[in-house]
Amino acid sequence: MEFQNNLNLLADKIVQMKDQIGTEEATKTAFVLPFLNILGYDVFNPTEVIPEFTADVGLKKGEKVDYAIFQNGNPILIIECKHWKESLDIHDSQLIRYFHVTKTRFALLTNGIEYRFYTDLDSSNVMDEKPFLEVSLLNIKEHSINELLKFHKSNFDVDSILNSASSLKYTKEIRKILTKEFQDPSAEFVRFFTSKIYQGRITDKVLEQFTELVHRSTLQFTNDKVNDRLTIALTKDKEIVNEEEFLIDETKSSNIVTTEEELDSFRVVQAILRRTVDVSRIFYRDAQSYFSIILDDNNRKPICRLHLNGGKKYIGLFDESKKETKHLIESVDDIFNFENELIQIVQSY
């Protein structure tokens, strides 16, 4: 949550300040360096974030990339910056040259608002022509936040990023093709559907007729999917509100006493998860009928529930639909037996 909030604050700053930013250097200072800081890198440490990093190319000496981020003495990301008003479409060739000689696997082209991440999926040590990840800070998607987190200093892992880069790159291209076909169906696209449902000879006249039918069908399909998503979201929100009202009523009860055994269980869960998530993100809320441990102080992110005040003791674990399943335990120490399940629940968030 803190990561996303910091990105949102930077986006607000960009909206407020961009018209006053007149140079590329000012863009770096006002927008790009704060972004690197949000990713966890110390922009004031010249051994970690190196400005004007030398990237000599062949006979061309003195070539410099705007920034290079180092980890354990090796460059992990090179960054080329442009003024915020400039389109990035005409500047990737310069970065391609730098990529080849810096021994990094990742390159970033940015104007402080748009961020395009590249790697070498198509040919080793040759930067791909198309980025595998594109992010606009003025229109941040939820999946983009998860991908950006992989570049955070605390999470950075080359193999992990490369594993998702291929999928991201080709998924993005497929979505572009689908968007274009939905808006203006090509003859090949129309012919594919026509051949599935039309038994006669596919003439130009038939294709013309089916072009309109395919266009209309794709629009209707898209609208139906959007409406279904909205209906599901509204239903879930109503259920969540009802659940949270119940939780608030329970947690406000003056009869609640948090026992030492419940606090011990909280410490056990923290110990189990400390390698998976910052323990400062783990909270508890005590209710009359159970002791709840949650992520980010958010009832929508339950980790587990402990039922310790009855004759028998239970730990309640949650599946993807937030349905609780109780497991009998003899003591708080038995929580350690559910380490894998607890880690999996937190990772799902």
- Helix share of residues? 40-55%
Straight-line distance between termini: 11 Å
Averaged pLDDT = 85
Quaternary organisation of the protein chains? single chain
What is the rounded Rg?
Answer: 26 Å
Write a structural description.
- Helix content is 45%, strand content 18%.
- By secondary structure, it is of the alpha+beta class.
- Strands 1-2-3-4-5-6 form a six-stranded mixed beta sheet, sandwiched between helices. The protein has a five-stranded antiparallel beta sheet with strand order 7-8-9-10-11.
- A hairpin with a 5-residue loop joins strand 9 and strand 10.
Which helices and strands, and how do they pair?
Blueprint: H1 2-17, H2 24-38, E1 49-54, E2 64-71, E3 74-81, H3 92-102, E4 107-110, E5 114-118, E6 133-136, H4 142-149, H5 158-183, H6 187-197, H7 204-251, H8 260-273, E7 282-286, E8 291-295, E9 302-307, E10 313-318, E11 324-329, H9 339-347
Parallel strand pairs: 3-4
Antiparallel strand pairs: 1-2, 2-3, 4-5, 5-6, 7-8, 8-9, 9-10, 10-11
Q: What attributes does this structure have?
A:
349 residues, alpha+beta, six-stranded mixed β-sheet, five-stranded antiparallel β-sheet
